[in-house]
Amino acid sequence: MSSQPAGQQWDDIESRRGMGPAVPIAAYAFAVAMSGTTLPTPLYTLYQAQYGFSSLIVTVIFAAYAVGVIATLFLCGQLSDTIGRRPVLVAGLVLAAASALCFLFEGGLPALFAGRVLSGLSAGLFTGSATVAIVELAPERLRGRATLVATVANMGGLGVGPLLAGLLSEYAPAPLGLVFVVNLALVAVAIVGILRIPETVRVQHGAPMRPGRLRVPRSILPTFVPAALAGFAGFAMFGLFTAVTPTYIDEVEGIGNRAVQGAVVFSVFMASTLGQLTMTKVGVRRALPWGTVLLGVGMVLIFCSLLLPSLALLVLGGVISGSGQGLSFRAAVTAVGRRSPPDQRAEVTSALFVACYVGISIPVVGIGALGVATGLRTAGLVFTVCVALLAAATAAWLVRNPAGDEERRPPSD
């Protein structure tokens, strides 16, 4: 069983025309799916006002998403290697639509939790499978560029979600409804597009469909471990911005404009995208440690912004942290993709995302619990110190144990 281009004729056509239509279609679907996961970010203050729950509940709702992601990656991380990329991507989009419907017709906390879990299940199916599908749909000579397309679609989608929700909820009618109607329309277009792209996996009919466990071949652990450490640290920072930053901007900075709140979160994800663009020139070996160094510097600035407080410093720290995360994240995905055996590529990529989403979930619940006891500002100060120290330790570890730039893929264990 192996991952291959859909056919020689398609590959010849794509080689002459560059990426061809399949890669942009898959990237669009990836961006739409990921944007749906961050749509509620600037809306949490509205939900808090409507239902009267604390910042701890906000972080628990957020963590419900991460739990859905991690569970799906564990149970289904290798599924697209078995049944094909397209069925998994379509299933992810259907779950994204179900999540949007939960938020559209929500009537309390149970619907919010259900919507976030469904969103997590969708992201869990998409993160590994879509990344690999985009790379496989590209001609061999453009595979490196396709990795960038995949990671930009991922981060770009995550950034567009809060920006879109912030603008629509602040300046358009039905602040808790219209954005999810728009999301449903975008998802419908994505489903049509995914149904039209070629399959890149030679499916073995009658292959077992039982859940499996994520396995990382022993031979690629020297590459996988530093990549996972960098991913954990970077996504912990994302957890801060997507879960509690809008509430912090509202309560501490006194800025209740949801478009501004969404734009701040958007700037962090766009900085991540720009960081990814620089990785090719920097190289995997240097991008991983230097990305975590930038992440640590950004967290120090965020610490100062909480101490003063200062929105300008918060944005600057977020942009620097985001650029560092993007630099190290693309390097991590590239290194792991290069070293993974072809028939385990989605499985290993999913394992990498498990490490990332553990980073985006557990620390955020901690900041919510600490915020109830000490206040959101104090909790943020503690959190930023912890992430800065983690980034510094990860950078030091990466300097001593670098992930190489080599293209060679070892055999599967």
Descriptive notes:
The chain is an all-alpha fold and 413 residues long. It has one domain (8-200, 218-400): MFS general substrate transporter like domains (Growth Hormone, Chain: A), CATH 1.20.1250. It is 77% helix and 0% strand. It contains 17 helices and no strands. It has helices at residues 8-17, 22-38, 44-51, 55-76, 79-83, 85-104, 109-137, 143-171, 178-194, 221-243, 245-251, 258-277, 279-282, 284-307, 311-339, 345-374, 376-400. Helix 2 (22-38) packs antiparallel against helix 7. The protein is globular and about 55 Å long. It starts with 7 loop residues before the first helix and ends in a 13-residue tail after the last helix. Mean pLDDT is 84; it is low at 1-18 and 405-413.
Describe the secondary-structure layout.
Blueprint: H1 8-17, H2 22-38, H3 44-51, H4 55-76, H5 79-83, H6 85-104, H7 109-137, H8 143-171, H9 178-194, H10 221-243, H11 245-251, H12 258-277, H13 279-282, H14 284-307, H15 311-339, H16 345-374, H17 376-400
Subcellular location: Cell membrane
Pfam families: MFS_1 (PF07690)
GO molecular function, one term: transmembrane transporter activity
